């Protein structure tokens, strides 16, 4: 099978700061690094490094060839990434010594992907393949609907969170992942708790406390504790977790095994500075000792 990812591609500009800035505050950064990023790119790299065949559907600007080359280097199929007139998306990320971060995002070309392009690409998808989206691109609803029509397993990572965006794709979802705050916001918007959503599998990530999986078809809820590690940068950890879960699903792993591998990958990720460029591969994840 394959994972089709309608996903964002960004240049992540990561600044090391003494603390996260408050309103009106000017801070001197002690360092700057540029990484390949975007929730979509991160998930594609994570799933590819976990052993899946990943086909990325996305867009960059005229200056974004480096991002396509980097994704290709990391094992992602990039044939469906368009070069558009809009600038490549980019994020300004401030990271404080404890690993917490603040992000300012310019969507750029990510929001210029046409539904027609997505539709033409998904004609090559086969029943049983996975389709994943995040709320950083255009054409999410059209992709979700077409994915369901073509017999794909339709997955949604609900970030950056917008309750209406989730509600718009909810009728076509098989898998939904969101964090605890987002789950509360979605409950306020829909009146439904995670176990009541019309989605077969819902995962709520709990940060340093781990994650909870809801198998709504069986009515089962399972908690997975996080591994205790010293975090230096939480950027991209959630995307790494999601990519590994999706890869586990794609490779036919039972959900508990897929989530456990994803927890290990996320634990390694928070011990590293950077985003897509430093996502661990499956060999590292399996060999890690916590």
From TrEMBL:
GO biological process, one term: D-ribose catabolic process
Binding site for K(+): 233, 235, 269, 272, 274
Active-site residue numbers: 239 (proton acceptor)
Required cofactor(s): Mg(2+)
Carbohydrate kinase PfkB domain mapped to chain residues: 6-280
GO molecular function: ATP binding; metal ion binding; ribokinase activity
Enzyme class, first EC level, given as a word: transferase
Short name of one Pfam family: PfkB
Localization in the cell: Cytoplasm
UniProt remark on cofactor binding: Requires a divalent cation, most likely magnesium in vivo, as an electrophilic catalyst to aid phosphoryl group transfer. It is the chelate of the metal and the nucleotide that is the actual substrate.
Pathway given in the UniProt record: Carbohydrate metabolism; D-ribose degradation; D-ribose 5-phosphate from beta-D-ribopyranose: step 2/2
EC numbers: 2.7.1.15
GO cellular component terms, semicolon-separated: cytoplasm
Binding site for substrate: 10-12, 38-42, 136, 239
Catalytic activity entry: D-ribose + ATP = D-ribose 5-phosphate + ADP + H(+)
Listed SUPFAM superfamilies: Ribokinase-like
Regulation of its activity: Activated by a monovalent cation that binds near, but not in, the active site. The most likely occupant of the site in vivo is potassium. Ion binding induces a conformational change that may alter substrate affinity.
Domain of life: Bacteria
Keyword annotations from UniProtKB, A to Z: ATP-binding, Carbohydrate metabolism, Cytoplasm, Kinase, Magnesium, Metal-binding, Nucleotide-binding, Potassium, Transferase
Stored PANTHER family: RIBOKINASE, SUGAR KINASE
Subunit structure: Homodimer.
Family as reported in the entry's similarity comment: Belongs to the carbohydrate kinase PfkB family. Ribokinase subfamily.
Role played: Catalyzes the phosphorylation of ribose at O-5 in a reaction requiring ATP and magnesium. The resulting D-ribose-5-phosphate can then be used either for sythesis of nucleotides, histidine, and tryptophan, or as a component of the pentose phosphate pathway.
HAMAP family the UniProt entry points to: Ribokinase
Record protein name field: Ribokinase
Organism this protein belongs to: Ruegeria pomeroyi
Lineage: Bacteria, Pseudomonadati, Pseudomonadota, Alphaproteobacteria, Rhodobacterales
Gene: rbsK
């Amino acid at each position: 099978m394959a994972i089709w990812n309608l996903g964002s591609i960004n240049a992540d500009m990561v600044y090391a700061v003494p603390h996260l800035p408050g309103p009106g505050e000017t801070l001197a950064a002690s360092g700057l690094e540029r990484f390949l990023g975007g929730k979509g790119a991160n998930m594609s790299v994570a799933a590819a490094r976990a052993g899946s065949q990943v086909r990325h559907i996305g867009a960059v600007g005229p200056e974004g060839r480096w991002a396509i080359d980097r994704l290709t280097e990391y094992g992602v199929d990039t044939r469906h990434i368009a070069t558009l007139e809009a600038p490549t998306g980019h994020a300004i990320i401030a990271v404080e010594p404890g690993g917490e971060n603040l992000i300012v995002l310019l969507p750029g070309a990510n929001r210029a992907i046409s539904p027609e392009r997505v539709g033409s690409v998904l004609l090559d998808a086969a029943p049983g393949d996975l389709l994943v989206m995040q709320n950083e691109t255009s054409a999410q609803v059209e992709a979700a609907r077409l994915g369901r029509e073509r017999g794909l397993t339709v997955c949604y990572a609900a970030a950056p969170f917008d309750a209406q965006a989730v509600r718009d794709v909810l009728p076509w979802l098989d898998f939904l992942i969101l964090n605890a705050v987002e789950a509360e916001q979605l409950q306020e918007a829909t009146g439904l708790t995670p176990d009541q959503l019309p989605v077969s599998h819902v995962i709520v990530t709990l940060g340093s406390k781990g994650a909870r999986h809801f198998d709504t078809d069986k009515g089962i809820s399972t908690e997975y504790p996080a591994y205790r590690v010293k975090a230096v940068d939480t950027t991209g950890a959630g995307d790494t977790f999601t990519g590994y879960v999706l890869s586990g699903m794609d490779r036919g792993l039972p959900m508990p095994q897929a989530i456990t591998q994803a927890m290990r990958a996320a634990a390694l990720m928070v011990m590293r500075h950077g985003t897509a460029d430093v996502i661990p591969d499956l060999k590292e994840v399996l060999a890690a000792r916590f």
